[in-house]
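User: Hey, my collaborator sent me this sequence without any context and asked if I could get a structure. I don't really work with proteins. Can you help?
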Amino acid sequence: MTAQYSIGEFAKLTGLSTYTLRYYEKEKLITPARDNHERRFYTEHDIKWVGFLLHLKGTGMSMNEIKQYVKLRAQGDETIPARRELLNQVQARCVAQIEEMKMKM
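Assistant: No problem. I've predicted the 3D structure and written it out in structure-token form, which is a compact way to encode the shape of the chain:
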């Protein structure tokens, strides 16, 4: 049986607050399972997915871009080119910001 974590346990494992986890759920970035009493629970798969979301956030992606990426991913592998283009746009923006900062030094 796969390990199941309450929202409090999951918050500790991911380093996110329960408020942030509920916000991510509201924004449809994560979809925890529910038990017989409708209490949310999380699995190892969710830990990996939140780690990936945090990685996207760390690249400088805005919340809207992350939501767009998640929507594209949910549509399947045929959206890989669109996801790659989104990542390329974020990368180009980051490179431009670095160059701008270098010029100010």
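In plain terms: The radius of gyration is 17 Å. You can pass these tokens on to your collaborator as they are.
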